[in-house]
Amino acid sequence: MTRTSTRTAVSASLARLLSLAVLPAAVLLLTVLTGCAAGGAAQGAGPGEENSAGNSAAGSGAKPEGTITVFAAASLKGTFTELARTFEAENPGTTVALSFAGSSDLASQISQGAPADVFAPADLANMKKVQDAGLVDGAARNFATNTLAIAVAPGNPAGITALKDLARPGLKLVTCARQVPCGTAAATAAEAAGVALNPVSEENAVTDVLGKVASGEADAGLVYGTDIKSAGSKVAGIQFPESGSAVNTYPIAGVAGGRNKAAARAFLDLVTGPEGRRVLAAAGFGPAGAGDGSVK
Asked: For residue 175, which of 189, 193, 157, 159 has the smallest C-alpha distance?
């Protein structure tokens, strides 16, 4: 064999050896790069898309958006209006539509299919009606308490000092209707005091009772202490010990047929959280006791 052919054979052998050594490394590098590309694609999934494990990339920390409708007891008008503004400010793109009325009316509306995302009555009994109808989403939460007081005209011209004074002949007394939480509480307190009340009018919302006293249509009315506080100088309030026998607990829950459950849960968290407790306490509401908002 010539010297030239020998060099050619050696070069060919070396080339084969080098190719065999480089090939595994190239395959390994390609595998690593492919894996990284796949991982990057999964991490970059857009909102609402699912990765290979079937998990939503949006996660549980997504901000609330859209509109929620809140059905709340009339006595919550001031506090829930403030909390709704806070919620909308903290969650741009959200709107809280508030509907205030007597708790029994609201419970009936929900039972008849009225669109609502959140329900906050002034007692456990009306929450139970909605729960028993299978219209509550998850467990209700107790978030506040309230007690009755006597609302009178400024200066107390009728000279009322106690619950028994409301039974005086000729006194124009206004109360809530029995099916309304403030009416149930009034009946309970009167029974505890052994007083027979004869109101000239029974209203479907506590705000209507307060309005009749403020306008001079009534000498006195049984309302919540928070309503008297919110009325400012329009009325005066008289506390009475028997009110302790009729403390109302306020529960709140999402409505099963609600269309915006994520935003509804976020609003519930606001009401039952530190900011909600601060706003409610400033308005005169008491703290909620332990419990899940249901009536056994």
From this structure: 189
